Amino acid sequence: MTTTTTSPHSSGPDTPAGVEVRRIGGRIGAEIHGLDLAGGLAPETVAAIGRALLEHKALVFRDQYLDDAGQLRFASLFGELTTAHPTVPSVDGQPHILPVDGDEGIRANHWHTDVTFVRTPPKASTLRALVVPPYGGNTLIANTAAAYRDLPEPLREFADRLWAVHTNAYDYAEPKDEKAAEHRRRFVSRRYRTAHPVVRVHPESGERGLFIGGFAQSLVGFGPSESRDLLRLLQSYVVRPENVVRIAWRPGDLVLFDNRVTQHYAPDDYGDLPRLLHRVTVSGDVPVGVGGEPSRVVEGDDAAHYTPAEA
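and the corresponding structure tokens:
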């Protein structure tokens, strides 16, 4: 699955017959048409989806209407699955599925990369829409490799040397209600702090991307004020509109995104309306910086209950 710069559609020599890739953003995002994810996918089709994921970072599969078993089966095509979350409970009876339920105070309305507060964040995430509001409730996904390329050269060289401490225990805004407060208590029931390179080298593509987001709370060697200012500066490149694609959900849609080179954000713009997604994540490796140094645990453990140990 490849695309060209001259057409939003592509059907190159590596694209399975009947499958179409439609670019939906200039720098990130594509819709994949012509596949039934509930059926068996041939190995060459899975490989083509993997290539498209590396190129487009976020893939949208419309009108799939998978059940939990189908989502688990699809996600597992790309690697071993994590459990739902290091601290938050899973769907009942489904240890690998995290309910993303707006009614339960789980509104991820801040830019983040999934679970970067542990040493081995997920490789990829799948989100499946079960209930979506008639307006709002979209998901925004940003290309952090494009953001890195946008940096002025002196700032890129500076960022290459930086390390950030990511944690799940930071100064949250005051919860709006008891449900949100209970979710926050669960979220921080185990404390994790992990040092990751600010610039991560993608293990497959070799691209460099800004590996920061909402869980990155401080920079190694800098005080709180300097850390906040520098992180805000770098983050401003991630969230530039040209680096972001907006996914407008319909029930039955599934999105697969590369968690190693993206951030995402779910605007809290749908009031009291219900919104429910199920998330399944694929186990990832330890991030590595430009100099080859891997991430390291600062506080907590390797979260072995969440992500399988490295081979």
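(Above: one complete record from the training split.) The longest strand covers residues 124-131.
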